[in-house]
Amino acid sequence: MLNKLAFRNAKRSIRDYIIYLITVTLAFSLIFSFNLIIFSKDILELSSIMNSFQMCIIIVSIIVILVVGWLIYYTMKFMLQKRSKEFATYMILGIKKKQIIKLFLLENIILGVFSLIISFFIGIILSQLMTLIIMNIFQLPYQINFSFGSEPILLTLFYFCLIYLFSLWKTRRKIKKMKIRDLLYLDKTNEKKANHISRLNPIIFIFSLLCGIGALLLFHNTIKNIMEDSSTPSGLHLIISLVLIIISIYGVTLTISDFLLTVLMKRKKIKYHGDNLIIIRQFSSKIKTMGFTLGTISLLVTLTWVSLNVSNMFYGVFQTQTENQAPYDIMIYNIYSETETEIGNDSPPLKQYIDFVNEYYTINEKLTYNVYTNRETPIRKYISNGLVGYQPYDCYLKLSDYNQLLKMRGLKEITLKDGEYFIHTFRDVEEELKTYLQTHQTIQVGEYTLHNKGMTSRNYTTAWSRGSSYIVVVPDQVITDNFEIVNQITAIDTKEETTEEFAEKMRKKFPAKVYVEDRETYQTMISIQQVTVKGEVESENRSMLTITTFSLMYLAFIFIAVVGTILSIQSLSDSTKYCYRYVTLHKLGMDAHQIYKTLAKQLLFFFIAPIIYPLIISISTAYSLSYMFDAFMKSDYSILGYVIFNIFLFLFIYLIYYIATYFGFKKNINEKIKE
Amino acid sequence: MNEILKINNVKKFYGNKTNITKAVNGITFSVGDGEFVAIMEASGSGKTTLLNCISTIDTVTSGNIYLDDIDITELKESELADFRKENLGFIFQDFNLLDTLTIEENIALSLIINGDDPNQIDPKILEIAKKLGIEDILEKFPYEVSGGQKQRCACARALINEPQLILADEPTGALDSKSSRRLLETMSEMNEKLSATILMVTHDPFSASFCKRVLFLKDGRIFNEIHRG
After folding, report:
1. Å from B224 to nearest chain A CA?
2. Within a domain: residue A125?
3. Among residues A246, A261, A456, B43, which is most buried (max CB within 10 A)?
């Protein structure tokens, strides 16, 4: 009997909580699809670091479980409130509380299992889609593959049980404590009484806002300092700024309504214009009732935007990193002798390396070139220390080498007349170099006075000048015997694509060396990898790109869905509970059309309020983080583009929740008005 | 006396062919300008149904209702809301004040919906509040004042637009006897001093005793009418 009743009630709930059920189903679909991916052999075998993808997603899943668990508990609380009278009636009729708890929990389990079953199907499709995207990142062909082991299912079931056990346990405790009287009046206790405008809250609001601005400035400066001088301790500053941002988010959300009331209510023209009074008052009463929840929602929205922004920035970084780190198939560093082992350098001669490469690949082209210095700093002394890299002097490339290197990459060669030089630079030094060039017409390199021919930051690679963020290209004759060699590099272009496995074999054969570096004032031990293989770097970057973007996107989507759902559930429950407000307005002469307009505005306020501050925070943090990421981006506007794209992506999904809520609300009050 | 409201053979039936409830079954009467009329019925739904029809919240099955010579049964759906806000004032049994607004703002609501000049709203509220003796509680929220005060706030809201007709549905239904008496005295004053025309439905003889004329309803028809001497 109880089962039958539970089943019937669950069926009825589907209609009332359709938005919630869709969200829970989507959340479980995402959880399941990610579990499928992290246990998929195809994915794990893509590269050696894809194993950390598994760990990363499991950690992200813990956050997801907490947030989805919160959503489910929150909704159960709502269902309980809505049906409290029904339960009180059961109890008055003599059904034991234990049975009622069983009934309610059973209903929720039925709904949960129902979503879970559907999410298994959606999850499989989603996982195929995501695998396709990952394969695309690795530029590999993909065939649809529906087979999977038991681990993804078991792990998903485990998460499901965790979430439901937590929510059911909390709800059970809540019901257990309640008396019939509480249940009878539970639906009347939700909204806190509208309060008089607090004098203190507007002050707290301004204080919180200032606290937020301070935190964002601290965050910005810390990031800037890290970029300019990585030796400054910054962990504590970052933590303080993040804590302050969180405090500020809650402070602002909890007090914004009193601030608005104080500002707006004094101005009669605004107060009594149109439906302003109704909207402002409803809004502030809503915030008073669920201020803390709205604070948490704001926090989640902030995290969503920040996650999306950071994930896109990483995407940008890893996309350009391969070109930056390994523009040629194989690069061998600082092996100065062609055939014999050098004295004082126990590395095997270059020939052995080349022979080893020849065993596996056909060499198309090969160039050994030098990076020179004359221990002078005509340009470097004008550039900030944090930007230039560890080389203490200006470094030079011969024009012939440079052109050959460009040719190997399929880029256009340059010409220099005698007495001209050219700068190729990493993006983050470009600005300072430009300023430098405006004030310095010529430089003195050895015996030559050279004019600047131009500068570019496109297609820069660290391979040309280890340890320096820019390289000066000069006509060959400028480099005389007085110059010393900073680095000697061999770039090899192979016919076949290089692989990660080859890199490992090569490293095994020629292990990394530890050098003692003499930097005049102090000595440092540095370990330098002598070989860079494009296949390995590429695979690392692709893996990192996959891991970061997928993990952060996963979080972001769950957050948006949970936020949208909670706002929606809250509004829809109001639509039945407070519909008398609209009926009164209707009786007083507001026509249905006006009421819907007021409703749309009121919901808009409710949906927009928790996202304005996060929007400001996310834009500000993105601006700060751009100091860190901008240099790696394809263009100056990449990050701005990401930020704008993410704002719209979020708003698009959010808008769906808003529209669904509006129509649900409208339907509910429409029924009452028509009665 | 100029007749403001004319009810002409109004019928309102509910239900289907096999089971018809004749809530209002051919009622005809009129209310003159400045009158305070009660419709009394011991129990049943007839009086509230009639009031709902007059207030354009419900439609009639047949018959006509004229307010100031306009047949409101002929008005289109789109015209009804405007008609209500321009011509009618309401006092409900359970006050129907918005709990999120202060007393002052609740009174302002009618004016706001009517699109009045924001600068004129405050003086108007103060004037009416003084007349009804609620000027001290304007800043309070409904939950902070007594039932009687709430109902006087509702009266102020109904009066402030200077409507042609005020409709009151069991206004004392949720009040104790002392508050009821004060409210009815207030309504009498509204009628006498402010010349408000009031039509009240009630089941309570005491309430009806404040009116100048009482119509008795039974089984959807008027079966008696008395005038106060």
Report:
1. 30
2. yes
3. A261
Evaluate whether residue A193 is within a structural domain.
no
pLDDT at B132: 84
| Chain A residues touching residue B97 (CB < 8 angstroms) | 584
Show the 3-state SS of A435-473.
HHHHHCCEEEECCEEEEEEEEECCCCCHHHCCCCCEEEE
Nearest-by-CA chain A residue for B83: A589
Shortest distance between the Cα of A262 and any Cα of chain B, in A, equals: 14
pTM for the structure as a whole: 0.82
Residues A507 and A411 in one domain: yes
Partners of A195 on chain B (C-beta within 8 Å) are 141
The two most distant CA atoms of chain B are separated, in Å, by 57
Which chain A residues are Cβ-neighbours of B141 within 8 angstroms?
193-196
Residue A325 lies in a domain: no
The shortest CB-CB distance from B110 to any of A278, A284, A588 is to A588
The verdict on A52 and A159 lying in the same domain is yes
> Total domain count for chain A?
3
Query: Do A87 and A171 belong to one domain?
Result: yes
Residue that is last in its domain, among A479, A503, A538: A538
Sheet holding A484-494, edge to edge: A442-445, A448-456, A420-425, A470-474, A396-398, A363-373, A484-494, A330-333, A531-533
Reported confidence tier of residue A161, pLDDT bands at 50, 70, 90: very high
Backbone angles phi and psi of B116, in degrees to 5: -70, 160
Q: Which of A197, A265, A277, A574 to mutate to test the interface with B (most CBs of B within 10 A)?
A: A277
Which chain B residue is nearest to residue A273, measuring alpha carbons? B118
B180 token code pair: 């009821």
The average pLDDT across A36-54 equals: 87
Question: Percentage of chain A with pLDDT > 70?
Answer: 92
> pLDDT tens for residues A568-596?
988 888 887 778 888 888 888 888 888 89
Using the predicted structure, report yes or no on whether residue B56 has a pLDDT greater than 60.
yes
Do A296 and A426 belong to one domain?
Answer: no
DSSP string across A297-350: HHHHHHHHHHHHHHHHHHHHHHHHHHHHH--SSEEEES---SSSPPTT--SPPH
Q: What is the pLDDT of residues B177-210, one digit of tens each?
A: 888 898 899 889 888 888 889 999 988 889 889 9
How far, in Å, CA of B139 to CA of B130, rounded?
14
Give chain A positions within 8 Å (CB) of B78.
591
Which residue range forms the structural domain that includes residue A277? 199-313+549-675
Q: Do both A392 and A446 map to the same domain? A: yes
Residue finishing a domain among A160, A188, A216: A188
User: Are residue A480 and residue A606 in the same domain, yes or no?
Assistant: no
Give the bridge partners for A368, in sequence order. Answer: A490
Of residues A385 and A6, more confidence is placed in A6
Q: Measure A561 CA to nearest chain B CA, in Å.
A: 30
Q: Is B76 exposed, middle or buried (0-12, 13-18, 19+ CB in 10 A)?
A: exposed
Decide if A268 and B118 are in contact by the 8 Å CB cutoff. yes
Do A282 and B112 lie within an 8 Å CB cutoff?
no
Residues A628 and A666 in one domain: yes
Higher-confidence position of B14 and A465: B14
The structural domains of chain B, ordered by start, are: 3-227 (3.40.50.300)
- Contact flag B85-A191 (C-beta cutoff 8 Å): no
Of B31, B24, B13, B12, nearest to B225 (Cα)? B31
Partner-chain residue, chosen from B85, B100, B143, that has the shortest CB–CB distance to A282: B100
CB contact under 8 Å between A594 and B81, yes or no, is: yes
Cβ separation B98–A584 shorter than 8 A: yes
- Residue B38's pLDDT is 92
Most confident of A145-149, A323-327, B121-125: B121-125
Q: Classify residue A544: in a domain, yes or no.
A: no
| Arithmetic mean of pLDDT, A644-664 | 93
